Amino acid sequence: MNVRRWGERLAVPTAFVLTVAILAVVFYYPVLSVLREAVVRAGSLTAAPLVDVLGDPFYTGVAHHLFTAPLSIPAGVLDWIRAGFPSVEFGLFGFTAFQAFLSTLASVVVGLPGAYLLARFEFRGRRTLRSLTILPFVLPSIMVAVGFLAMFGQNGLLNDILGALGLGQVNLLFTLEIIVLAHAFYNAPLVTRLVTTAWESVDARRVETARALGAGPFRAFRDIVVPQLLPALLTAALLTFVFTFLSFPIVLALGGLRLATVEVWLYARVQDLELAEAATLGTIETVLSLALTYLYLRYEARQTTTGGGTTLPRRALAVGWKTLRDPVRIGLAVYGVGVLVLFVGPLVSMIVESVTGPNGLTGAYYEFLLNQQATTAAGTTKPLPAIANSLAFGVGTLALAVPMGIVVSVMVTRGGTGSRLAETLMSAPLAVSGVVVGLGLLQTLVFGTTIAGYRVTAGGALAIVVAHAVAAYPFVTRNVTPALAGIDSQLVDSARSLGASRFRTLLDVELPLVWTAVLAGGAFAFAISIGEFDTTVLLAEGVESYTMPVALERYIGNRSLGPSLGPATAMGTVLLLVTAASFLVIERLGGRWEP
Amino acid sequence: MDRRQFLRRSSAGVAGLAMLAGCTGAGEGDNGSGANGSGTNGSGNGTTEAGADSTATTGSASSGGTLRVATYSSFTGEDTAGNWLKSAFETEQSGTTVEFLTPENGVNQYVQRAKQGAPIDADIYLGLNTAELVRARKKLDKPLFQSVGEDLDGADGLKKPLRIDPKKRAVPYDTGYISLVYNENEVEEPKTFDSLLESRYEGDLITENAQQSDPGRAFLLWSIIAKGEENYLDYWKQLVGNGVTVLSDWEPAYQAYSDGEAPMVVSYSTDQVYYHGPDVDMAKHQLGFLNDQGYANPETMALFESANNPQLGRTFMEFVLTETAQSKIAVKNVQFPAVKGVTPSKEFDKYAKEPPETVTHSYDELAGSVESWVEEWSRLVASE
Amino acid sequence: MSDAVPERDPTTTDAGVALDNITVEFSGVTALEDVSLSVDEGEFFTLVGPSGCGKTTTLRAVAGFEEPATGEVHIDGGRVTDLAPERRDVGVVFQHYALFPHMTVRENVAYGLRFRDPPGGVADDERVDELLSLVDMAGMGEREPEQLSGGQQQRIALARALAPGPDVLLLDEPLSALDARLRERLRVTIREIQQELGITTIYVTHDQSEALAISDRVAVVSGGRIEQVAPPETVYREPQSRFVAEFVGENNLFDGEVTATAPPRATVDGVEIALPESAAVDTGDSVALCVRPEVLSLGENDTASNATTLTATVEHREFLGDAYRVHCSWNGRSLLVKTDSREPPEGTVTLTVDTDDIHLLSDSGR
């Protein structure tokens, strides 16, 4: 009894300490081992690398004067005004922020109507559609690039359709527009998912109260619903901005070098082993995205969200012939067409690519998968182990990231001053360049360190799962924290006074009440693990721990069917199907425990 | 000792050749099995001989054991040059195991390991290009690779332009020639670098990012040879002005070309090896050797300074340079042999085209320059 | 309990609940200042006061939800100051019921039984049924909380709080969210159950009439301090402070000066008023006179010597059903009179108060 009581009392603090320890080992230490190069040169502190980068007009455009000749700025501004406000360049950082801003805007514009549709209308397949919104998240960028090429290319499906309709041609590839669209492809579902969850927790009684007080439907929406959606929308927008700010493979694949971002540059610097410059770029990126995260969390903390109550009722989407006369429903239909083009188009195009050879329809690429599976040659990447590994890592990540995320949420919602700062630091895995994390893991865990004469390295399945969990748990935290904060404290007090420890209260009362949020976070965690590539290849010991994205990547280099992306697209299709099935299962199973 | 080793090597060499015959002759049942049989006999003899003489046992210990070969992942796996090398070499050197390591970040993995004092878990690196050799040397205080010296068997037969390393660390085992692949239905063949600047080729060329793509970097280096170190940036400024697209790597670039995004792409002169036959529109697979040149991008192998078993490593490298291995690698890797006078296969000969003139940079020409060339180029493209 | 460690430190007091010099601060603001209380075993003790006075904080300090900056909390003679809420054996009922929405009624009531050692097994089921009957909700076990009315939910909350057999029952404004009639019915139920179980109970309310109706003793709380602790009748009839006099029931307060001591008299705005014989005052003292509206009689000219008569004007009358509230003005002040007369007079009236019905506040300065 005593042991159990102590166990329960220590459960949350212990789990928190473990979480911090895990973060320290597989995140903070590796990342700082890279970033320290930005401020340490030959063993002593220096600002030189930072000044070099910030003072380089290639990186910061006109802002480089701030770091090279701050005194010249007033005169410079005057000259600029006299010259009639000519356009100003802000360098690589400026362009990166600009495209991230556009991408965020596009993601919100594309994602919001989806949330409206999913939260406010009832139609066949709604739950399935909701489950599938996570799919884009797991797709390797190379597959998205293939799909986009086949969909939006000069001879792509879109132009075929436009041509057939007599609407002319669009040329989108290798433009900023296509990058923004691809970023929306990845991130609009994030907006949709987060906002839908928030919308579903709007208390219908409050809207009814507002209506009873004389507010029209629009006013009630603006005054009651919008404030409750805003935190979720801003979370999604913030995450989108940070992700697209740090975006790299999609920019490289669809935009080319002319539209390079900071992260593209950072990657090239790492390839050249110019690690100090890479670290400097990574440090600036990290400072910017963490600062944004901190500002956001400060804002979020001031929002009061209270869950519970009655959910707003859903309306039927199709209402017979009247459907065609309702402007809202017509608008949604137009939106549906847009979704088909942006989301279904590239995915279907990729699937079509997987059955299309140079000479028309072919099953060769799937046959290739079967042959890979059947072969006994060493070093062959087989599809079934890839699927099994992906799912195993996914489940492992789920099992680790969900408790980690919850524990951090609990500590953050309980904590007082400084808890925002703590949460910001704990959210850092979202806000640090993937290239930097990869490099850090390589330098520390893979290469190992010498402790008491022994070389200690970490790798293998467990290390992969832990690393995935570190990347994934902030999604759990971001989902769960606002929900936990919204729980009526009297429920917690009641349970405590009835004899439940803090830990039992969490298990028996709080978690069941925020289950939807836990599930939503868990789905992201699983998705992150399934789609993860960089860390997986780094930490894989031997050639056996490959996952679906790794297999896909290796098939790209496989020339046994000629230089064709066919095998990779076939594997991409398998990845798509396995993931889709997993999410349907996760959400159905998880939904059962929903209160 | 020397004589005995030579004997061993030649007897095993016979076995290797016999194995090869067995492979090539698949289909002619009798021949194949006979050849296999003799192969087994051959290695049996070798063992007996070694067992009879204790000095020989000590001597052969250096060739037994495990050889760890680091390479890129597509070099290994089902039906690849890597797997052929492994089984052929293991058959030739009985008791030897070849183990492949495929670090995702290639040779950088070992440069970084050396820099941090972490152990280097490989004996040979296979798949090194000249610029990487430059980088490996420049980033480290001590050399990462050792010289194999003058007496590596088979090294005499290497094609001259491919001998890029005067210090004899990197030994080429095959090469690709960078050229344009174009669609003659849509564009006329561009003959020279200058012609690419003409307005009729506006927006027609796709190339790859020299920061991380081999053909991309090769094309940039080629343009430096063609236009000179002083003028290449100016040339590229105009090329960018003429709408060149710079994609991340060869795969997306070639995919974009195949999808008809542009009628020209920087690729390899082995293109038609993949694309020929009655169903293929050969117009889409025309090769453009600008200035009648092609830039050689040799793939080399090198022995780590810290190799556990340098002797076995050398034996392996010599094996890679044998005629059989050269033609096998060429066919399976779809690259040209590095050794003169090797004819990989009829089909390969027919469809793999060598440029009229081969150009490339040697180690000494790249050392000290390649990084700034690439950096200035990438800054130019990204800020245009 | 199999614990080797005693649950509570033994102390000298044998009170059901004792607070010794409790101070509670919220980020620098003092919510409770040096509060001491002693609730007898089995007593129904009510904390009453306006919102924000600290009564709920006091309750939460007993439950263990607030950590006092200084002072000690004892339950059943044992020190619990450092114990977590789940180890204090208290049952708490909140204003908004706080039923667990994801559990059935039965699961809610049974929740606290999970933590008993050893587990009760079948006995737990019987215990739940017993409690559901106790709160008159037998047969409702399988309902979801949201299917119940507010009154029903509060009964379940009470059953849930009582199920583990706590030493102390804490009720925090349990009836405030209910309508008036239900409130009155349920408070009788609560009182009956408390009597039946003999459980030490602390009840928090802002409704002074509820406090008077239900309690053995009442503590009036204001500004983080206890103003008075006494049985309801005493609090009503003999308030110790101006605050208590005005907060509990209605009162007419007059400030006066003592002019004589045998018999004691005082002047209020120049009018002589006789004070109770027992008043211990000296000539020249400032005093506050409390005159409840119901002790002022209207229109009758009582000539008895120990009565004071005032002449006032009726301004306004309120009909309450069983009585009238009559607002008068006297000497430029308003006076409230309550009468059960069927037809109270209008215009100029005579108000009479029996000297013994006047209560003096011991310290008029408060």
Automatic annotation (TrEMBL), chain B:
**Annotated InterPro entries:** SBP, ThiB-like
Position of the signal peptide: none
| UniProt keyword list | Signal
Q: Which GO terms describe its molecular function?
A: thiamine binding
> What Pfam families does this protein map onto?
SBP_bac_8
- Compositionally biased intervals (Low complexity): 46-63
Compositional bias per record (Gly residues), positions renumbered to this chain = 30-45
What is the name attached to this protein's record? ABC transporter substrate-binding protein
Tell me the GO BP annotations in alphabetical order.
thiamine transport
> Which residue ranges are recorded for the region named Disordered?
30-63
UniProtKB/TrEMBL annotation, chain C:
Task: Give the highest taxon in the source lineage.
Answer: Archaea
* InterPro entries recorded: AAA+_ATPase, ABC_SmlMolc_Importer, ABC_transporter-like_ATP-bd, ABC_transporter-like_CS, Mo/tungstate-bd_C_term_dom, NA-bd_OB-fold, P-loop_NTPase, Transp-assoc_OB_typ2
What reaction does this enzyme carry out catalytically? tungstate(in) + ATP + H2O = tungstate(out) + ADP + phosphate + H(+)
| Membrane topology, as annotated | Peripheral membrane protein
**Per the database entry, which stretches of residues form a coiled coil?**
none
What is the annotated signal peptide range for this record?
none
UniProt key word Transport? yes
Q: Which UniProt keywords apply?
A: ATP-binding, Molybdenum, Nucleotide-binding, Transport
Entry's Gene Ontology cellular component terms: ATP-binding cassette (ABC) transporter complex
Residues of the ABC transporter domain: 17-248
Quote the EC number: 7.3.2.6
Q: Where does this chain mainly localize?
A: membrane
* Keyword match ATP-binding: yes
Give the function comment from the record: Part of the ABC transporter complex WtpABC involved in molybdate/tungstate import. Responsible for energy coupling to the transport system.
**Complex formation:** The complex is composed of two ATP-binding proteins (WtpC), two transmembrane proteins (WtpB) and a solute-binding protein (WtpA).
| Protein's recorded name | Molybdate/tungstate import ATP-binding protein WtpC
Natural source organism: Halococcus morrhuae DSM 1307
